[in-house]
Design goal:
118 residues; mainly alpha; 2 domains; 6 helices; globular
Length: 118
Amino acid sequence: MNIVAFLNGLPAAQQMRIPGDDLLAKPDTHLRRIAEWLSLTTDEEAIKAMKRPEQSPYAFFGPVNARLGNDPSFLNAPTLRHTAQAKELTLEGPLSWRQDGKGFSPEVKELAREFGYK
């Protein structure tokens, strides 16, 4: 919600939202689109480099006073995790992990739709 609040203060031209599932399903397409938007190089070598996060200086555990400045799962195996295709997920219906049999709240659904989920 902090990120959403921050973005609400920026012009639309300074924002880009791409569902993570879409990025992982078609990294070349979306990385090129992001790079173009940022006015960065979009040649094949640049896109290949973007798909090698394990070579980033941020792909490692930080110093003792900042060990987990990144996702621990990523830090344990820092690679781009491609998916064959974006999963067909739905915001409707009960959630298997909720013991009360309920689904997402209206607020969560609204936020998910803002991020491109259906």
